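Weekend entry, working from home. Most of the wet-lab plans are on hold until the incubator is repaired, so I used the time to fold the two sequences that have been sitting in the queue since the last round of cloning. Logging both here for the record. First:
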Amino acid sequence: MNEKMNKIILASALVLSIMACKKDEKPAIVGTNNEGKELVINAEGDTVIYEAPPREEAEIIKEKENLDGIKAANDGSYKFGLNLKKGSTYPFKIFTKSTSTESDGKQSATMTQESTTTLEYMVKEVKDSTFVLDVTYKQFAEKYSDGKESFSFDTNSPTAPTNEFLKLRYDFNKAVVGNTFQMEVSTRGKVKSINNLWNVREKVKNKLKDNLSPEEIKALDEIINMAINDEAMQHMFEESMAYYPKKDVKLGDTWNRTESAGSANSKMTYTFESIENNIATIKLSGTSTGSETKNMPDGSGMKLHQSLDGKVNGTVNINVNSGWIQNAVMDKDETMRMTQEFQGQKANYSSKVKSNTKIN
């Protein structure tokens, strides 16, 4: 075979490989080596072992349910993260219904409470790895029932309740509604900074301070600072995004999150259950335990024994395009027991709380 024929065959193979790449994204195979590995002609005209090129992200997205906020990798793992759009708004509504039973071993009382908090997150700016959000308070609602009477308020109602306690709650929350502060969060749902919350506190204070004495205004300041602070808002947001794994996961993988406060410890286990129809589903289960014995600080000699035992189960559905929570539901059972011991005498108390929480 002469040199001219070699060049013609080489050129033909190169043309065929280019055509094949355009059609199938794989060059023509011109043979195999001694190990059985496929050989192709590269752009320089050399015969080399074929190596599949990394897939384009568009191909992965198409293959993996049009993923964007939750991204799929070549090895079948998924990276969880936020992918929020500038100018778009994202809802956050959390509803909790709980039933608590208090008992001293002889008598018991049961109370049912419902609470709704609605916020709106608007994306003001998108940075390289963070999102700047305008967070607006939209609604607060509460309902209490002891089986005989029920009381409620809703800031969407223009009329305040007649019950004195609930009217105070209504007036306070009504003053909060409509105010906006700013939050910067990472793509992983971690709060980086909170700004302008002090301005919200001042606006609430100015709406409520009329006809209050200096002592009452001081007390109002304390209440506002406890109810509206950076830590509380950070906790609320990160708790709703705590389902994100810190590393890439595959279907069926689990990850844990543990927390402790004093003698109380909690452990949550998350399982990446499924992904379809642009929804990623995570199952969660967890426990909370703790116990301690301490002497009362008043010097009376009284001892206090406390214990905690709880469990939680739930499901979280996440929109794969935005990474935002589509909806979530959690059921929690928690029992707290307390024993007061003094001069050989004991008094036992218990509190059992069963709650159901829904987000969005």
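Second, folded right after the first finished:
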Amino acid sequence: MEQETLVENVSERSDLVENASERSDLLQNDSQPPRKINGWLAFFLWVGVGFGAFMSCVITILAISKIGVTPVSALIYCGYLGALVVTAVMTIVAFYKRKENAVSLAFVYIAIIAIDGLAQIALSAFGNISLEIKNVVRPFLWALIWFLYLMLSKQVKEVIPVEIRKTKPVEIILLVVYVVSCIVLHVELDKMVKDPKSSLLVSNEYLIKQTIAEMNTEFPTMSDGIRIEKVTLEGKTVMYNYQFPNVGLDDLDAGYISKHCIYHKQEVLEGYATETDEDIIGITDLFFGSGYDVCYHFKDRKDMTVYDIVVTPSEYEWAKEQADTFRCEKAAWEELLTEVNSELPIEYLGDCFLNNVTVDFENNALIYTVALPEMKSYILKLFITESYFKNFIIENAEGLSNYLWSMAGIDKMDLKYQLVTSEGEDHVQVVVPYEEYKEYL
């Protein structure tokens, strides 16, 4: 019994060896060298498959370079181009090594071309994209010609005999990877055509460039006497370029520019905090959410820089968190008051002197300490009353309003004027509520 089993095993192994030998003889006979790959088969492999795959990669990469790469799009492109390139390389290698799945790989490559053509038609139909008829027909005609060639060519049959041809799992895997990647890619391309922001293929850098291009179609323009020239992209900074057409840098005091810049930045931050226009919010969210700074660049009539206001993503997020409860940064108030008080005392309100300016954050008030001129006390009490001084301030509000008033207006502070005598004794205190001076800001 054991001898019979042994004989059967030896017989089975002998059959396997004979089959393998026959298969090997078909692929490459020792007495007859295999048919060389030339003519139309060589043209198909090197031009149709090799060069075709190379050009597909070049065209796709050039398109990607315009819209950028996202982590998701990188994965999609890897599947899309990867399956194409791997199939092309494996097809060429398989034919030259006379592998039994060479023709099967070639059919997969042809199927890939046809599937891509079908996807283009679908994108054109659903995405309202016009395609020339030659671009629609070309991939299908190419696929049909080379499919018939592989099926009927005598040379192909001599290089890879029909009897030994096989399909391996790798062909199925490559085809599935390509089909899935192609479907996802073209779905996202359709989204990109309709709304770039909704597509996983589009990078934020591309969206920013497109947004800036759209914004610049409305510029240059004038607003409140300031010329808005254009928006530019300088590295990781979005720059709004403004010009004062009637102001020269030589006409401005350096101290005034510095203090005005401090106030202006708080005004910009307040604008971000209280903005309700969804389009504007979408643009600023895109800029700052992509890690870009935003710079407001102001020039004089001779294109000399007056000042820059730079807002970082963290400052933007802080302002957005404040929303309608926005208050100027205490550090900004401290910086501004330090600069203001360094120049005091100065003449103020005619023959008075401004001695000091402070902020009472607890009571939300901007406090001016004003020294009255030398006068007899009974004259001061008789003429400089609280009601008189308050009316005087309101009547001269346009002349008194400056960056201090404006910054106080952002915080809706009251204005407190503490009048002291020339000897420093308290005389009277006047309070101007925000509601009474806001119209002069």
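Plan for Monday: verify the second prediction. The CA atoms of residues 14 and 90 lie 32 Å apart.
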